[in-house]
Every structure is written in C-alpha cells, then in structure tokens.
Amino acid sequence: MNAFFAEFIGTAILITFGAGVVANVVLKKTKGNNSGWIVIAFGWGMAVYMGASASLALGGAGHLNPAVTIASAVFSENTIDTETILEMIGGQFAGAILASIIVYIAYKQHFDETEDVNAKLSVFCTAPAIRNTTWNLLTEIIGTFILVLGASLLSKPESHAGQLGALPVGLLVLAIGLSLGGPTGYAINPARDLGPRIAHFILPVKNKRDSDWGYSWIPVVGPVIGALIAAYIFKMF
After folding, report:
1. How far apart are CA 148 and CA 173, in angstroms?
2. What distance in Å separates the CA atoms of residue 110 and residue 225, rounded to the nearest whole number?
3. How many domains does one find in the chain?
C-alpha cells in the first residue's frame, strides 16, 4: 500500500496545482483570469516538482504517470512486480480524480460564472487545437518521449541534476509545455487526463458539455507509446 499511497498523494498534489492553475487562468472573475499560457505552463512545471517531491518523500517512485510506470516495468533492470504496478497506477488515477474534485470545490463560484463550456472542460482535461487523430496522437507520443527520455538522462549521475531532487523534471515539463504544448495541451500522462475527465463526467458542473470521450483515448495511448519508446532507447545507452 505504500506504493499506492505515495503515488496517490503525489498525483493529488500534481493535479491540484495543475488543474488549479488552468482554472485560475480560464474561468471568469478569478484573480488570474486571462493571464495566459506561460502561467499555465509554469504552474504545471511546479506542480510536477511538488508532486514528485512529495511522492519521493513518502518512499514512492515519484512517477505520478502510468506511462512512466509501465515503461519502467517493461525496461527497468529492477523488476517491479505486477501487484506494485497496479497499486501505483491505481494511486495515480485515484489521486487525479480526488484532486479534480478539490479544484472544482475551490473554484465552484467561477465555474458557475463561466459560460464557455470548453473552458470549463479544459480545467479537467486536454483537447486539441486542431482535431486530427493522427497528428494529435503523434504530438502526445513526441511530448511523452521527450519527458521520459529527458527525465531518464537527468537521473544519470553524470548530469548532476539528481542533486536538485525533482526540480529538473519540473523544469523539463515547463519546457515541454512552452515548446510543444500548443497542438494538444500536452497531457503526456494518462492519469493527468483521464482521471480529471472522469471527474468532469461525474461532477455537477453547471451547464457543462460532454466530456469528449471520443478524444479521450489519445492522451492515454500516445503517452504510453512515447514512454515505451523513450525507455527502450535509454536502455540502449
């Protein structure tokens, strides 16, 4: 259960800060309304740093991402048993759903004031700027590939980045958001997207739209593929 708890708390912190910064920017009458993409990208970068740090402090792996957990299980030299993998992924999704509910409660009045149904959905999950299945999937694969390969390289002793804890990975996510987040909103994490999407579906958000289930598989499959490719390449080094 320690694997579950560490990923649960870490992912809950990740999504509370991450979905929270989106809510602050896109919902009406907030202090941060219309403050822009840089604020969102920076908020997500710090969210990853805080969430991963919390998970590591609790004795977890700090993955916060099923794609990373799956890739680690497939290619890591340190074998992870199936039960632990399921506990970690379960914790990631549970933490993401709980955090989305927390953000909804915190911003309830602003959800009520916001008429744009797509903006309200964007607090919970991603959507493409231009909807095209092939290109959207490729974008998520590329973003997650860079995330996993970059994080793996930063973990090597030669990089000296490990001395800074989870901060380098947070900065990596910031860079991905600023550089590659435009096409799809850079989910790069199945739990980060599907967990909050489920929360959007079950929560009584005023005048909400559907949860865009037709797109929902892309931020799940794309990151898993990208993470597996990155882990395979890293193992070859």
Report:
1. 10
2. 36
3. 1
CATH at 224 = 1.20.1080.10
Closest CA to 224 of 185, 198, 187, 199: 187
Domain holding 192, by residue range, is: 2-236
Distance CA 53, CA 60 (A): 10
* Per-residue pLDDT reduced to its tens digit, 7-58: 999 999 999 999 999 999 999 999 999 999 999 999 999 999 999 999 999 9
pTM of this structure = 0.97
* Contact (Cβ atoms closer than 8 angstroms) between residue 204 and residue 170: no
Tens of pLDDT, residues 126-162 = 999 999 999 999 999 999 999 999 999 998 888 777 7
CA separation (Å) from 148 to 24, 26, 65, 81? 28, 29, 10, 21
- Residue indicated by tokens 């559907």: 210
CA distance 37 to 50: 20
